[in-house]
Amino acid sequence: MSRYPYTRLFWQSERSVVIAGPHIQVLDTNTGNVLHSTARCEEDQIASGPIRCAALSNCGKYLATSGDDKKLKTWEVNGLKLLGSRGLPKKPTYINFVDNNDILVADKFGDIFRYQLYPHSESNGSSSGHTRDALASHENPSGGELILGHASLLTSFLLTADEQYIVTADRDEHIRVSWYPQGYTIESYCLGHQKYVSAIHIPSFSPETLISGGGDSVLKLWDWMSGKLLRNIDVFSAVQPFIAVNAPKKKRDWKNEDEDIEPTEGNRGRRKSKGKRQEKQSADDGDAEESQKSTIPEGRPGEASTEQSEAVFVVHRVASIPSLAPRIVFSVVGATAIFWFSMDDNSEPCIQHEPFYKPIIDFTLEDDGFVWVLLDADWSSQGSWSSKGEGSDSNLVEVRRWTPDNFPASHPSPLALALNSCTLPAAQADLKALDLYSDLLALPKNVEAEDEDRTQFLSEVVVDDATTADGRSNDGGMTKRGLGRLKHKQALRRLQEVGRAESLDFEPLANNKRAKSAGGDVR
Description:
Structural class: alpha+beta
């Protein structure tokens, strides 16, 4: 029987919380007994799909979760009581608490909204004063307060220890340091990444230093207050041998980009009715990023298929061991090891690793040096899911204890034994919907493929029979938006033709410019 892997673990000295697919479990840390589980709750309390984001409050009493249903749910850990559920405007990408138990939610449209722990009675309607912020890119059905916004998908954020600043990272290589909660006041930018930024961290032993990683081959160390780059640490060469999950190459189809223009037999660009547009927006979740789903090859990353695949580098999490030597620990999506290096000198650090032989989903560091590693234990080398194995190879959780040199295996605690034995069953369809490696497809930008498709598409642009040479419609069937795009494509084609003419003969073009300046009409 297939089972859910664990995607997030919040370790506490008394009660620990673990996320598995759409379920939440609260276990006694010392005995491993399952105290509470949403698997025993009513169906309407369970997320309609896997939980994508989760955060535990600093006091350890409250949990916030959100899944594909775009609902922010708050829970009381003791008893796993559902405190409230409210709709989010867009799919969240990251959730975190602040000290006063307010909740910050970043979404795919690049905005961060703040919500109170207990939703107001009127927040389910549109009467809240923050329903429509003038600076927000979209409406908020639950009255969240806009903190800041990016022009791209937000991948992660963190608050400094004093909660005076918020550091945000996005898919467009940007890291921004803003005041909190006055997010419109920007303190600095940390610019230098060439690819998406997917993980950021400020070590407690070096609070003036920010560590960032993503699609670049290096981790970057910053003086985040000034935005100055301190150093680059090459990690890709050490990580590459352990990347086990590959992503199929994306193929973009430019014909699917105009989601509100639908070709018909008698009309090239007839606009869909409002009902159809709303139905489509509901189907694709209204998110700009969701438009990529129709162009991504079917199957999960790493799945054996005839499609050509490629290794994609995505740093998943960066953390530090707070009570011991200054060590930085990080993981990579689809890699079968965790990695660490020392920050105690200015020499080139040696990237060390601890192998686990199965793709690592996430890890959690305790203050005393224990590291809890969550594994996709049922993943096979062919990329499919296997049934539950036998022995240590089937463990969903592995525990290591830090020593001055490495992370040797330690005697399993009652919590680890319980997590590996009290698993939750899952169907194959549930595991496919879980999509553990979606970042391998969602974060990279296939610029070369997009440029190639754009060039090919522009070369094939023709004027529809229903339009005149200047782009005006004879029968009034084309929308203004469709006409505008058609005229834009025609202008680009004319520029391409002019460019080819310049490369063939420069002198006639110069004469034409002089004739035009003298009042002649040159075509």
